[in-house]
Amino acid sequence: MLWKASDVMEERIKFIVRAHQEGTNISALCREFGVSRPTGYRWLKRFQEVGSLSGVGELSRQPHHVPGRTSSELEERVILLRIQYNWGAKKLRVLLLREGIDLKVATINRIIKRNGLIDPRDSHRPALKRFERESPNELWQMDFKGDYKLSQGRCYPLSVIDDHSRYLLGLFALNSQQGTPVYRCLIKAFEKYGVPDAMLMDHGIPWWAPSNPSGLTWLTVSLLKQGIKLLFSGVRHPQTQGKVERFHRTLNERVRHYGRPESMAGWKDLLDYVCNEYNHIRPHESLDMGTPAQRHSPSSKAYNPNPPEWEYPSGAIVKRLNPQGCMDYKRRRCFVCEALAGENVQIEEIENKLLVSFRHMYIREIDMLKGKSVSLLKPKI
């Protein structure tokens, strides 16, 4: 039986009238009206207390909360939200509260279970409490979510997420992992949200070059020119990028829930929808069940398509690298970084070792005695 909210009192009155008919079985009557026996007897007790059928309507001043078994209408709403989003009880409770419906988490869980809406694949350990930056745009995390085969070609979803707010600054469907399309996506994010203090990424293409002793690529050099500090996660330690990795688990769930597209256009539509849902609708336990949009704000640092030449400290030793990324120093030719060909770098000599920095980042240490060279890529304090 599906009750409209306006008919709740009428149904209670019908229940009481039927209960007072000779030979009525209360248990059977409760089953017919879809309520528990304690609820049915509570209605009858209320009628005896107030001595009026109309007074039974005052049994509860919370029309969305029915003692005992939840009304069919509210149960149906929970079921529809579960089917629509496939989220757990805590998140669904937040959505219901936005509609003025106050149901306990345990009640929502019971509705989900008794309607067979549990997918074994949704069972996982509770999320770890992760360290986060104190304010938006201190750190953005960036990574690809693998690749998906299409009817023609493959799709490589690219995620860019703010560490503090979990706000998705971009969720892009790309047909490759090449640097040019990735940087175009980053420019869109920079133009819309400003430039972060730092970015964290793994040792994958296109932002890391395993064949380059410094690891830098033209893309990461472009980020350095925007004043962004570069941070790289530990090799084979994806947990370093906890926020973006956790989002990718969520993305997997959404793809499974909505269905995997077969075309690039379908992926773009899906990722746009998921991005909006994640930022503005989905409650986050790590944000006290708020949304990333409520916690995020744009950066005060604007994107500059033509960053000025870097000014090194007065009196610093500055060298311009040749087309091969090398420099001459004390009659020796030293390789620094091919991706920095033609750029000025600063040299600091400490006990026969050269510290090479590009703009605000140390990038290389060269041992002049042993002839060894190692990549640094650590922020310059």
Tags for this entry?
381 residues, alpha+beta, Nucleotidyltransferase, domain 5, 4 domains, 11 helices
Molecular structure report:
The chain is of the alpha+beta class. The protein has 4 domains: 5-59; 72-122; 140-295, Ribonuclease H-like superfamily/Ribonuclease H (Nucleotidyltransferase, domain 5, 2-Layer Sandwich), CATH 3.30.420.10; 317-379, no CATH class. The chain is 34% helix and 18% strand. The protein is built from 11 helices and 13 strands. Strands 1, 2, 3, 4, 5 and 6 form a 6-stranded mixed beta sheet that branches. A hairpin with a 2-residue loop joins strand 8 and strand 9 (332-335). Helix 1 crosses helix 3 (37-50).
In the CATH classification, which architecture of the largest domain applies?
Answer: 2-Layer Sandwich
CATH level 4 superfamily of the largest domain: Ribonuclease H-like superfamily/Ribonuclease H
CATH class of the largest domain equals: Alpha Beta
Radius of gyration: 30 Å
Low-confidence stretches: 1-6, 58-67, 125-129, 235-239
Quickly give the structural class: alpha+beta
Short description, anyone?
The protein has 381 residues and is of the alpha+beta class.
List the helices and strands and how they pair.
Layout: H1 8-19, H2 26-33, H3 37-50, H4 72-85, H5 89-98, H6 105-114, E1 140-144, E2 148-149, E3 154-162, E4 168-174, H7 179-193, E5 198-201, H8 218-225, E6 229-232, H9 242-258, H10 264-280, H11 292-295, E7 317-320, E8 326-329, E9 332-335, E10 344-350, E11 353-358, E12 361-367, E13 373-379
Parallel strand pairs: 1-5, 5-6
Antiparallel strand pairs: 1-3, 2-3, 3-4, 7-10, 8-9, 10-11, 11-12, 12-13
Helix pairs in contact: 1-2, 1-3, 2-3, 5-6
